[in-house]
Design brief:
The complex is a heterodimer of chains A (228) and B (103). With 228 residues, chain A is α+β, with helices and mostly antiparallel strands. Chain A is built from 9 helices and 9 strands. In chain A, the strands form 2 sheets. In chain A, strands 1, 2, 3, 4, 5, 6 and 7 form a 7-stranded mixed beta sheet that branches. A two-stranded antiparallel ribbon of chain A has the order 8-9. Chain B has one domain. The chains are: A alpha+beta (228), B alpha+beta (103).
Chain lengths: 228, 103
Amino acid sequence: MDNAQYNLCCEVLRRLHREKVLDHMVLIGSWCLLAYKDYFKNVQYRPGIRTRDIDFLIPLPSRFDHKVDLEELFRDLDFVTSFKGRKGFMQFVHNDLMLEFIVPERGRGSSNPITIADLGINAQPLRFMDFLASNIVRLKFAGLKVAVPHPVNFALIKALISARRQKPVKSENDLRQAVDVLRALIEAGETASIKQTFSSCPIRWRKSIRKAFQNELLAEEISKLLLE
Amino acid sequence: MVLMFIKDMLNEELQNSIQIRKDYEQALRNIPKGSLVRKIIGGHEYFYLACRNGSKVQFNYLGKLDKASIDKYDQARIYRARYRKKLSEVDQQIKFIKKALNG
């Protein structure tokens, strides 16, 4: 099933690329850990376990210059359209993958779906997404150049989110992913980049991130780095 | 903690599979029922829609159809078969995950 899942993910990316919309999306969530293999080619790095959902971040304002019917694009791959939760956030589901679309939540925020008319979809607004979209790298994945958040931004947001999780298991997993990525960055000699991005975060975020790592026994070196 | 994480993830995947099952069922319900049956009478092509009604198969007369309508019914037949296959795969996934969770 794993191979089928990976192949399906590649096909989804290829189709988005063919329709010239992939460049305006950022792959986030656990699947971008796989893309980081290209970033960490020369250091020890193992992407963690991935879930079935692939999240695409659409930075706002969206920059699509033509219309693409995503529902039709994925139909012959046996994706069906689903609406999640009471608000009706749109998903394309398949028994191997679930495609979800996210936009940055701004201001006081609204939990209502945001319509992306050019793609015929709605997207879920989420906090902190502007921070992910503010620093992206394009990495080789499935033979394409796919935009993903810079690993530093990804790791810091994971640490920040981990502090807000209700379930300890989820929180632990977020933190584990953050630690793995930050360790690989340190090994790649990107300490300055970590410090710089961390210091650009709002004070409240920095406090939460530091606190998250302080509780993590295996992340002593990261804790020290962020305190310097 | 690792075991708890795996269990939590499996639980999440189980809920996902159950939802995906519902979504495929809904997609199946949205596909028009019946299969197109072609009959040639007096050198002319006429179409009937064959639908199961309990234990009986009913043939509803559609008459002559244009290519677009024929394609629509053919597509419906293809997707019905594909979604049914997906349903069966999801059922296997659900069975597998439940087994993994309950030992």
